[in-house]
UniProtKB/TrEMBL annotation:
<protein>
    <recommendedName>
        <fullName>histidine kinase</fullName>
        <ecNumber>2.7.13.3</ecNumber>
    </recommendedName>
</protein>
<dbReference type="InterPro" id="IPR036097">
    <property type="entry name" value="HisK_dim/P_sf"/>
</dbReference>
<dbReference type="InterPro" id="IPR001610">
    <property type="entry name" value="PAC"/>
</dbReference>
<dbReference type="Pfam" id="PF08447">
    <property type="entry name" value="PAS_3"/>
</dbReference>
<keyword id="KW-0597">Phosphoprotein</keyword>
<feature type="domain" description="PAS">
    <location>
        <begin position="11"/>
        <end position="53"/>
    </location>
</feature>
<dbReference type="InterPro" id="IPR036890">
    <property type="entry name" value="HATPase_C_sf"/>
</dbReference>
<feature type="domain" description="Histidine kinase">
    <location>
        <begin position="395"/>
        <end position="614"/>
    </location>
</feature>
<dbReference type="InterPro" id="IPR000700">
    <property type="entry name" value="PAS-assoc_C"/>
</dbReference>
<keyword id="KW-0902">Two-component regulatory system</keyword>
<dbReference type="InterPro" id="IPR050736">
    <property type="entry name" value="Sensor_HK_Regulatory"/>
</dbReference>
<dbReference type="InterPro" id="IPR003594">
    <property type="entry name" value="HATPase_dom"/>
</dbReference>
<keyword id="KW-0808">Transferase</keyword>
<dbReference type="InterPro" id="IPR003661">
    <property type="entry name" value="HisK_dim/P_dom"/>
</dbReference>
<dbReference type="InterPro" id="IPR005467">
    <property type="entry name" value="His_kinase_dom"/>
</dbReference>
<feature type="domain" description="PAC">
    <location>
        <begin position="210"/>
        <end position="264"/>
    </location>
</feature>
<dbReference type="InterPro" id="IPR035965">
    <property type="entry name" value="PAS-like_dom_sf"/>
</dbReference>
């Protein structure tokens, strides 16, 4: 027959067995401080193997000096306590951060026993530290961003607000119970319903979020500031009704001011676009018209709806389309900032008009083309007048050239006749007439050349030619000029066989113009240097002279037609003011570049380049 004592021992053994195999670290401490029982999980927590933790003293693993000190953690009248953040000591001396559920009871002998349920909270505490740090950063960000937060209890109609919310609303001294009414009293009357809309949407309609922007009277009462409130549902009751909402308020006065400025600029652009007396259009990256103004519609004879269904390609004259598309492509790829050109457009009735087109690009935030702004000015009449002027100038020049050639021939012949019985005075008059005839002939030739080059009607017969001999010929031809102004020419051409692709007649014209100009403006007795150099793909010819130089105010006009640095009344050297303009057109039409450098009172250098080979 099994005795009660035997049954009790069996029950105790089963409890101890279960105790040992529990996954939660457990230990029981005797009044002496000896660890009577511990399970494997507790041993692993403190770094002990098997059952080595049992029979150790509690003082070896916890920072207490006695059982009495351990028991002191339990408040008077209670039988247990939770100790958090106590630092245990592992067998190897390392520390372990613990939370302990401590329970005390009295055994049959009246002695106090203690049971400890332990938990390693190192990771938990680190996570808590990170959470607190994040909360602190979030709080700093909210304060730094000047965001006032609040909580509204729908059931009690009470509100809790942050200090910053009070500051933003100018309600620092207002009692909490009066906050809502005081806030509403400061809202602009026209915006009161707008300001209350987020509450209505979240509470009455159940929207998760809502926001509004409204005007609030400033602290001094003299102006209105713009505020934004963002609201979100924080809690719902068991029936799903909104019971609490939280919100954030920010001052958006500066943003509204910027928006107002943008709106004003946009309105100004719209007004100037619509009311402009010249044709304007917004064009997509594919060439499609996005928006056109009334002037462009009237210019082209299409309605606004019709034009916005078209692209610029469809109304461009076929002969002008290729160059237009090339320029458009360069602009899209960012190779050029804008472009301007004269081109022909086909109107709705089939007639052709000339337009001066200016195109600029608008980019998005990434710098990619968004659309283009085009401006078209009708220059049909201007083109017609220019053509009539060119025809008139050419006709007059030709009409002058024929009799002038005859007169010059007669004067030259008369001057060369040895047997002519002329007095010194008569001979001088013949010489003056011949000289003036040559100047008039040069003037007529310059005007004709200028008109032909401007209209791109001057033929360029380019081929491969050696440079050195042509430069020698130009120098010889201009020696009279050098003698007249008391200067010398010096040629430096290290590569005598250097050749380029150009029209030799036009090459001579360009160089002669440079040489004659240099002779006119060089210091008497100085030397004019002609330097020929080979570049990577070009030939560069430079003409340098020592003289007064080009005035700073005139440098941007050097290549403009009919311009000279000195006023007519003060000019000591003749000229039409067309030579350098013609020279520039010749060089550019032969595929080269032209330029100059001039330092006041020092050396002035004019240069031009021409390609070495046909490109």
């Amino acid at each position: 027959m099994v005795t009660d004592t035997h049954k009790q021992k069996s029950a105790d053994s089963a409890i101890i067995h279960a105790f040992k195999h529990m996954q939660v670290p457990l230990m029981i401490v005797e009044p002496s401080g000896t660890i009577l029982h511990s399970n494997r999980a507790a041993g692993q927590l403190f770094g002990y193997s098997d059952d080595n933790l049992s029979k150790q003293m509690i003082f070896d693993v916890l920072p207490v000096d006695s059982v009495k000190e351990l028991n002191a953690y339990i408040p008077p009248g209670d039988f247990d306590a939770i100790i958090k953040g106590i630092i245990g000591r592992r067998q190897d001396g390392a520390s372990v951060l613990l939370a302990i559920h401590l329970t005390a009871w009295t055994d049959e002998n009246g002695a106090i026993q203690h049971a400890l349920v332990l938990r390693d909270i190192a990771e938990e505490m680190e996570a808590d530290r990170i959470r607190k740090a994040e909360m602190k950063r979030a709080d700093s960000a909210i304060k730094g961003a000047r965001i006032g937060v609040f909580e509204f209890d729908v059931k009690t109609q009470s509100v809790l607000v942050s200090d910053l919310w009070r500051e933003l609303m100018g309600l620092e001294q207002t009692p909490t119970k009066e906050l809502r009414m005081a806030w509403m009293a400061r809202i602009h009357p026209a915006d009161l319903e707008i300001a209350m809309e987020p509450i209505r949407r979240c509470v009455d309609e159940g929207h998760e979020r809502a926001s509004s922007e409204y005007r609030l009277r400033s602290r001094d009462g003299e102006s209105w500031r713009w505020m934004r409130t963002d609201l979100a549902i924080a809690k719902r009751d068991k029936s799903g009704e909104t019971s609490c909402v939280v919100g954030a308020a920010t001052d958006i006065t500066e943003r509204k001011a910027v928006e107002s400025t943008y709106h004003r600029i946009a309105e100004q652009f719209r007004s100037s676009f619509e009311a402009a007396t010249i044709g304007k259009a917004l064009v997509g990256v594919d060439g499609q018209f996005l928006k056109v103004n009334r002037s462009l519609c009237e210019l082209l004879g299409f309605s606004e709806d019709d034009l916005c269904k078209m692209d610029f390609q469809s109304i461009t004259h076929p002969e002008d389309l290729e160059l237009d598309l090339n320029q458009f492509d360069l602009l899209k790829r960012g190779k050029i900032p804008s472009y301007k050109r004269e081109k022909r457009y086909i109107r709705s009735d089939g007639t052709v008009l000339w337009g001066l087109l200016s195109v600029g690009m608008i980019t998005d935030a990434e710098g990619q083309p968004e659309h283009f702004v085009s401006q078209i000015v009708d220059i049909t009449d201007q083109r017609r007048l220019n053509e009539l002027k060119s025809e008139f100038v050419a006709t007059v020049s030709h009409e002058l050239r024929t009799p002038l050639t005859s007169l010059l021939g007669s004067l030259t012949l008369f001057s060369a006749m040895e047997g002519a019985n002329l007095s010194d005075g008569a001979q001088r008059l013949v010489s003056i007439a011949e000289e003036n005839g040559k100047r008039l002939s040069s003037l007529i030739n310059d005007i004709l050349d200028f008109e032909k080059f401007s209209a791109r009607q001057m033929s360029i017969n380019a081929a491969q030619h050696e440079v050195a001999s042509l430069i020698d010929d130009a120098v010889l031809a201009n020696l009279p000029f050098a003698e007249q102004f008391g200067v010398n020419f010096n040629v430096t051409c290290r590569e005598r066989n250097l050749a380029g692709f150009f029209d030799p007649k036009r090459f001579q014209q360009v160089l002669s113009n440079f040489l004659s100009n240099a002779a006119k403006f060089a210091d008497e007795g100085s030397t004019i240097d002609i330097l020929v150099e080979a570049e990577k793909h070009n030939i560069r010819v430079s003409v340098s002279n020592q003289g007064a130089g080009i005035p700073e105010s005139f440098k941007d006009k050097v290549f403009l037609p009919f311009t000279q640095a000195a006023p007519v009344a003060k000019r000591r050297r003749g000229g039409t003011g067309l030579g350098l303009s013609i020279t520039k057109q010749i060089v550019e039409q032969m595929g080269g570049d032209i330029g100059f450098k001039s330092d006041d009172g020092e050396v002035t250098t004019f240069w031009f380049t021409l390609p070495q080979n046909m490109t």
